Every structure is written in structure tokens, then in C-alpha cells.
Amino acid sequence: MAVDFEKLIVRTPYLFHLTYLPSLERIRRSMTLESAGRLLELGSKQEWLRKRREEMLPFRIGDDQVVLTDQRPLTAGNVDFQDGWDVSDLVESVNRRVFFWRGNHDGLLSKDRGHFGTYSERGEQLVFLRIPFGDAVAITENSNPEYCRFNSGGPRCSGGKKSPRGPRTFMEANQADFTFGKVREVVFRDVFYLPDSTEICHGSWEGEWQIFRFDDVQRDQQTNEATR
Fold first, then answer.
1. Are 96 and 188 in contact (CB under 8 A)?
2. I need a surface site. Which of 13, 66, 105, 116 has the fewest CB within 10 A?
3. What is the pTM of this model?
4. pLDDT digits (tens, 9 = 90+) for 176-208
């Protein structure tokens, strides 16, 4: 078995990414999405690279405000650790990647649509990015996505069986032991370069979508000030 990329992109032509309004200025200026691990290292917060975040983690990298989400759903008691892994290995593996959900013109897959309710209820200022899957991997630096058949950071027990995590949690298409229909997450290591076709929607994945432009930094700053 392997992930058939062509079938995957036909079935779900979009990738969706969630971030927070305070982090948006850095993303727009650089036109990249950086993994939590990279941001932690740049912000001199390396102590969190292998430690589970119980709460949201705000910090600064120079003049940039960054907010990392909590990792409360990453519960070690629900994990069947494989090949010598422990919870610290899993936390670092998650932190080293940029995550996307699959979707189509109607939005996220139905199984992922309830994932963000907790953050909305807390009053977090959510921002969604939508990226054509084909455009994402057309950029050379993004050309080797990995795939996961789980919500990697939210392991659950099913029928009393723990969810496996280990070195094969994230695999490239030709390495995968599952088919494209089982793909839950699409991930990229360390840094993801945003294509010009990237779109943005504040507060919801349902739209209306607008092109995400480098020259809109000032507008987002004004929006941030108005919502504080």
C-alpha cells in the first residue's frame, strides 16, 4: 500500500491550516509557516521542544508576537508507543512539523469540522489559511509532504485499544502502509512556503475567502488592535 498523491489531490484539492491572529504578521511578512519547534528555537524557548504544553504559549521572536496552541489532547495514557518512543519523542516529532487538514470547495472533511470549537469558545482569535494542494507541492521546498492517518496530537483509545505512535507516524507517500483514503493529516517538516494562491478567512473555515497578500500586514495590525 501507499498514498496515491494524484487520487488524494483530486479527492481533496485544498489544504487548511489554523493559526492565531497575533501570529499572522510574522507569517504574512515571511510568507512561510514555521513549525512550533523552529519557532521555539528562534524564541529561545527550547525547553518546550520535548515538553507537552498544558496552556497556550505566547512569546516573542524579536518584534514578532507568536502564539502556540496548547497540547492538552496529547495524552500519553492513550498512546501505544512503538520502537522505543516515549511521550517526549512524540511531542518533539509533532513540534517539528507544520500541519494541514484536507478539504474541498465545501471546506474541511466532515470528521474534522468540530475540532476548533474549544478554541472558539475560549474567545481565541482564529485565522484559517486555505491553499490549493497542487500549488503547495509545486514549490520545490514543499515537494516532500508526509502523511498521517491519525490526529497525531490527539490520540484516543478505541474499543480499549490505544493509538499507535512511533517513527512511522509520519510517512512520505511511497513509504506509507495505508491508502489515500486513510490520510487524516498532511504535514511538512520545519518550514512551509506559502504559494501566491494562499487564501485567508478570519474566524472560520467556511469563508468568505480572500487572497492572502504580503502588503496586507498593516490591515491585520489594525484588526488586531481593534479586537484587543
1. no
2. 105
3. 0.89
4. 999 988 999 999 999 999 999 999 999 888 878
